[in-house]
Amino acid sequence: MSMDLNLLRTFLEIYEARSVTRAAQELSLTQPTVSHTLARLRTQLGDPLFVRGPGGLEPTARANELFQVFRTAVDNIDAAVDSNAAFDPATTRRTFRICLSDIGEVIFLPPIMARLTALAPAANLESVPMTVGHIPHWLAHGHVDAALTSLVLGGGARREAVTKDRYVCLLPRAMAPKQGKLTHKQFDALGFVTIDPTAGHGQIEERLGESGISLRTALRVHHFSVLPSVQLESSLASVVPLEIAERFCRQWPLVHRELPVDSPAFSVDLYTDHKIAASGPVLWFRELVREALREMPSALGPALH
């Protein structure tokens, strides 16, 4: 019995998502299409494969047996295609996809896009909004080619530090103290705009908490780009990476001050799938991102040597 590769991919997605709806979203298909594919699989394999349970779709014993077989087969096929396909950056029309937070788009997209345009003028680049919990799955299944984040991700993805930064306090100029470093008392008196951890910068609150300092959050948002206007209108502070603080201060009447505790440097890491073959477009794109960020001037300098 032969089986369409797309059927295998759909089976794997349903198995991991435990939901036809979520599988359809991950595959960029409609729910009826995925439901129809599942019906074909059930007919061909002679098994219901999934039954409804309290946590969603539960795999049958047969589905559990088939999962690893299908997973290995699809991974081997993908690796063989990537390693053997002729890839010419100068002529490719491929769309590369990189997962970035909105702050990542501001800092990293310009040098990456400039290098891509120079080396692969017919290629396209898509920035995928950061959803931290989904990144390992997206990488493993080829939904994105790379991700840049300061968070440590699970899932076995390849991780490589590409640049460094540290945190500072960003304030409206009119309410900032003259000295360069805030005292504990000054810091405690401030109200803050904080960024939701899913945006990729949740660790600063944990680090401050370890030092006995907490942020009095007046507003929580999902995007760094709204900080300048919100802070100026509401007289609020924020804690942001130095790189973005310096950019905001050049464009808005804002200043940055040192935190009352030492802010250790953190790395921004490039994540790619650990199964990347020795050649192919994904490997080429990873190297392009590395080189683009290596040449980029940053607050603390590159992490790559």
UniProtKB/TrEMBL annotation:
Domain HTH lysR-type, chain residue ranges per copy: 3-60
PROSITE patterns in the record: HTH_LYSR
Keyword annotations of the record: DNA-binding, Transcription, Transcription regulation
InterPro entries for the chain: LysR-type_TF, LysR_HTH_N, LysR_subst-bd, WH-like_DNA-bd_sf, WH_DNA-bd_sf
Gene Ontology MF term list: DNA binding; DNA-binding transcription factor activity
Matching Pfam families: HTH_1 (PF00126), LysR_substrate (PF03466)
Top-rank taxon: Bacteria
Family in the record: Belongs to the LysR transcriptional regulatory family.
Name the record gives this protein: LysR family transcriptional regulator
